[in-house]
Amino acid sequence: MNLPFSLERRPDEQQIGVIGAGTMGAGIAQVAAAAGHPVLLLDARPGAAADAVSRIANDLSALVGKGKIKADACAALLGRISVVDDAAQFKQAALVIEVIVEKLEVKQALLRELEAHVDPGAVIASNTSSISITALANGMRHPGRLVGMHFFNPVPIMKLVEVVSGAETSKNIADDIFELARRWGKTPVHAASTPGFIVNRIARPYYAEALALLQEQAASPEALDMLARAAGFRMGPCELMDLIGHDINYSVTVSVFEANYGDRRYVPSLVQKALVDGGRLGRKSGKGFYQGTPGRQPQAV
Ligand code: NAI
C-alpha cells in the first residue's frame, strides 16, 4: 500500500526509512515527519534512535514554548516517527535514506543488505557528504535507484539539498527527489558525483586554512571565529567544525583528498586528526574546540 515511491501519492501514504539516527539522521527524520510522512528510524547502536526522538521532542517543545509551533502539531509530528531495530521493517518504505558513518565500505555493505529488504520500487538515497554515488552503487542489484540526497546541518534550518546523480542514477529518480526536497521546503540543486560534490568542495579550503593557522599557532579558535563572523560569515570555521562533528569533517577531507589522487590542496589536518583521536568530536560529544552540552543543536524554526 505504501509502494512504490511516487510523487502522485500523499505524504501520509509514503513511508520514509532513515538509517542512522545521529546528528543528520535525526534532522532528516524530523523534516520528513514535518512534511507528513510516516518515518521509520533505525540505528545500529541500541538506544540511539530513541535518543534521537527525545532530542527532536526537546527541540520541538522549546519551539512550542516560544509559540513557534502549536502543541498539537508537535505531537502529531512526533507521532509519525517510529523507532525500528531491523532493516527488514523497511519493506513498505517508499524511500530509504542512508545517514550512517562517512565510510565507503560501511555504506556499501549497508546498501547491499538494505536492497534485500526493500521493495523493488523503493528509492534509496544517501546523505553522504563526499563519497561517490557511483562507487556507493557498485554492488547494488538496482544501482539506478540510488541517488545522493545531501542535506546540510542543522537539517530543519538549512534549506540546501544537493541531489547527486552517479553514473547509474535514473534521471527520473533524481528529478523526483529534487521535487520531493522542494516539497519538504528545501532548495534543491542537482549535482554531479564529483568528490565533495559542490558545497564540500568549495568549503574544504575554508576549513583547511583555519586548521593550518591553528597548527602554525597563528590564531586561536576564538580569534578565527570572531574574525570570520566580523567579516560577515554566519559561523566561524572552528564553531562550524564543532557543529558538523570533527570525525565527519575529517572523513570528508580524507575522502576528497583521496578522490583527487592526494592533491595537496585537500591534505587532512593533523590538528583535526588529534581532535578525532582524542574523542573531541565537537557538539555531539560535548567537546571539540569548545566545550558545551553534548548533542545540542540549533533549534528548528
Ligand atoms: P553521526 O556520527 O552523528 O551519526 C551516525 C549514526 O549512524 C550513529 O548514530 C551510528 O550509530 C549510526 N550507524 C553507524 N553505522 C551504522 C549502520 N551500519 N547501520 C545503522 N546505523 C549506523 O554522523 P552524522 O553527522 O549524522 O553524519 C551521517 C552522514 O551524514 C555521513 O555520511 C555524513 O558525511 C553526512 N553528513 C553530515 C553532516 C554534518 O554536518 N554532520 C552534513 C551533511 C551530511
UniProtKB/TrEMBL annotation:
Residue ranges of every copy of the 3-hydroxyacyl-CoA dehydrogenase C-terminal domain listed in the record: 196-291
Domain of life: Bacteria
EC main group: oxidoreductase
Keyword Transmembrane part of the UniProt annotation: no
Molecular function (Gene Ontology), one example: (3S)-3-hydroxyacyl-CoA dehydrogenase (NAD+) activity
Alphabetically ordered keywords of this record: Oxidoreductase
Record keyword Cell membrane present: no
3-hydroxyacyl-CoA dehydrogenase NAD binding domain: residues covered: 15-191
Cleaved signal peptide residues: none
Any one GO BP annotation for this protein: fatty acid metabolic process
EC code(s) of this entry: 1.1.1.35
Name of the protein described by the UniProt record: 3-hydroxyacyl-CoA dehydrogenase
Organism: Noviherbaspirillum galbum
Residues of the full protein shown: 1 to 301 of 507
